[in-house]
Amino acid sequence: MKTIAVIDDDVPISDLLFEVLTNEGYGVLRAYSGTEAKYLLCENKPDLILLDLMLPGLSGEELLPSLAGIPVIVVSAKANIQDKVNLLLGGAADYITKPFDISELLARIAVQLRNSSSSFLAKTLHYRELALDPSSHTLTVCGYPVKLTKTEYAILKLLMQHPGQAIAKSVILDKISIDTPDCTDSSLKQHISNLRRKLKEAGGEEYIEAVWGIGFMLPAKPAL
To answer: Does the structure show a pLDDT above 50 at 223?
Structure first.
């Protein structure tokens, strides 16, 4: 199930989107301010975000730079062309103006999810000396192959799809559950420990960083 985060302080619109998206088979997360959204996204990793701009606390424009790696459709009453251009150049995947047509919004969501899935499936993922090929399910470190279990591969693929972002343990378990249903909350720590050991043996350094109280991440930059 794909999950969509609705970040909008307009309760009637948020309720409408929740009902429509749920009926379409999506999981829905909701936040009503930019600050609440930051907390929500530390604990969850949705497949797509519907983002209003005029939010209490952090505005949508202020929040957008921190949403890299997740397709964002801006849903706003601002209709100025320059606003749209700036947001698209600033990282938004698409822009739809309020009031919007539900069928058009659903089509735009479907397109972004399809593009995102195709991108993740087709491209070799790179992080420093790591190269992960989704088509062959192989990993190389410094050009040398490293053998991973199915669970280790699924965990590393998820982390490499979102470098620099802390991913909660619950999100890791949810995202890899289709491919590795045997991985549980109690066994996740051991799987990551084994993965960290293999990567360190191959590359000579730590790659996966534990984020206290949240989960794990691949740091955006190497530690100095």
So the answer is: no
Residues 114 and 12 in one domain: yes
Print the domain residue range for 41: 3-118
Interval 203-223 mean pLDDT? 83
Torsion, CA 128, CA 183, CA 188, CA 132, rounded to 10: 0
Closest CA to 47 of 119, 104, 98, 96: 119
Q: What average pLDDT score do residues 98-123 get?
A: 82
In angstroms, the CA 175 to CA 169 distance is 10
Predicted confidence (pLDDT) at residue 122 exceeds the cutoff of 80: no
Exposure pattern of 17-42 as b/e (b: 16+ CB <10 Å)? Answer: bbeebeeeebebbbbbbbebbbebbb
Token couple for 56: 């209490």
Asked if the model's pLDDT at residue 136 lies above 80, the reply is: no
The encoded tokens of residue 144 equal 């040398």
Total tally of structural domains belonging to the chain:
2
